[in-house]
Amino acid sequence: MDQHWIKLSYERDTYLIDLNRISTFVWANNGRLIFWLPDGKVRLIIHPKTNPDAYQEILDYLTSSPPYKDGDSLSVKQR
């Protein structure tokens, strides 16, 4: 199984996360990326202005993974 590790700081803690183990990512209307760690206890909210490096790295991961790896674009689903 491939691994895609990132290191990010969030609320005074540092996390080392294998993005392949994250089952769901949410892209909110305001551009924030939201996901839960595999144990389901910790929710991380990554904003492009407060954590631009992690935000871009996660977007790059998502756009290079199915179903987006063939050039599809991410879009926000309106409620």
Word description of this protein:
This protein has 79 residues and is an alpha+beta fold. The protein contains one helix and five strands; from the N terminus they run E-E-E-E-E-H. The chain has one helix at residues 52-63, and strands spanning 5-10, 13-18, 25-27, 33-36, 43-46. It has a three-stranded antiparallel β-sheet with strand order 3-4-5. The protein has a two-stranded antiparallel ribbon with strand order 1-2. Strand 4 (33-36) and strand 5 form a beta hairpin. The radius of gyration is 12 Å and the shape is globular.
Kindly summarize this structure in a few lines.
It contains one helix and five strands.
Unreliable residue stretches: none
Please trace the helix and strand order, writing H or E for each element. Answer: EEEEEH
Helical content stands at 10-25%
Q: What Rg do the Cα atoms give?
A: 12 Å
Q: Could you describe the largest sheet, including whether it forms a barrel?
A: 3 strands, antiparallel
Termini separation: 35 Å
Provide mean pLDDT, rounded.
83
Number of helices: 1
Give the tally of β-strands.
5
Biggest sheet strand line-up: 3-4-5
* Percentage beta strand: 25-35%
Shape: globular
Q: Given the helix and strand composition, which structural class is it?
A: alpha+beta
